[in-house]
């Protein structure tokens, strides 16, 4: 199969869809891999690295799309890419369709085969291709939140870990999934007091078992959320509904109950956000303030640490890429229930029910 890896064009997105190690595995399996020149520069992988691994280097993104049967990316195609995507071409990437009706319609119109990393499942229901980026984003949420708590950037002026004689900062984590647990781990490591909320008691029991005593768990409901936002300095939103738009757990009126300089980091923003007042921002302009509350809502947080993120992503996507390349997308999806759940749109039809429900599209 002819596989193409374009350079990402999203604002400050320095990740790339495949490492040279991934290219080597694919070329050894008899496949042809084309990399757009400079695609890996931001992640520390250069054209010569890819050439040595057996890749062809093409000069433009148009060539990559034109000559490839399967496109392997990191982020969703942007409007400039829509006309390049053609019927029956496989596009394997993060799509997050439920938060983007324009993208959904464009992919329906293209007739392409859209397989979304974020809805591929393991037999236990976990999301193997979303997990590593959720791990990165959860850890980064604390790094960024700690930074924006500083007074020069309009935060409360709180050091999360405190110092002797001064109480540590307080972190509220919404969701005890991968993002939430990684965020709690990082915040706890800094010495912050952490409260993590979830509706899944099994997850809360797990957190309670593995986290230190200054990480406490509570059941998530509006009453508890409203109680805690009044006293916590940093709020992390890490709620996920598979393939669907995230629920708004922090509503606009709640901002009035927070202390000035409170920081909210909405890691769920690429799925529509779990905070009513968040909208996607970029690494170039990551924050904005509403009612004296600092909002950080970068939709591609792991793009700020592209080397780590690219290696972590290729580790998990490569087996699926090989499967699709070796067998073709139809047979690969037929034989693998988990991969089939990643099949969101094919031949002009929406095949994932949560996306169809979001836009009232017939499945």
Automatic annotation (TrEMBL):
InterPro entries: Ala_DH (IPR008141), Ala_DH/PNT_CS2 (IPR008143), AlaDH/PNT_CS1 (IPR008142), AlaDH/PNT_N (IPR007886), AlaDH/PNT_NAD(H)-bd (IPR007698), NAD(P)-bd_dom_sf (IPR036291). SUPFAM superfamilies: Formate/glycerate dehydrogenase catalytic domain-like (SSF52283), NAD(P)-binding Rossmann-fold domains (SSF51735). GO terms for cellular component: plasma membrane. Pfam families: AlaDh_PNT_C, AlaDh_PNT_N. Residues 149-297 form the Alanine dehydrogenase/pyridine nucleotide transhydrogenase NAD(H)-binding domain. Substrate binds at residues 15, 75. The keyword Zinc does not apply. Gene3D superfamilies: NAD(P)-binding Rossmann-like Domain. NAD(+) binds at residues 134, 198, 203, 220, 239-240, 267-270, 298-301. Keywords: NAD, Nucleotide-binding, Oxidoreductase. CDD domains: L-AlaDH. Its EC number is 1.4.1.1. One of its GO terms (biological process) is L-alanine catabolic process. GO terms for molecular function: alanine dehydrogenase activity; nucleotide binding. It catalyses: L-alanine + NAD(+) + H2O = pyruvate + NH4(+) + NADH + H(+). Residues 4-137 form the Alanine dehydrogenase/pyridine nucleotide transhydrogenase N-terminal domain. It is an enzyme of class 1 (oxidoreductase). The active site is at 96 (proton donor/acceptor), 270 (proton donor/acceptor). Belongs to the AlaDH/PNT family. This is Alanine dehydrogenase. It comes from Zeaxanthinibacter enoshimensis.
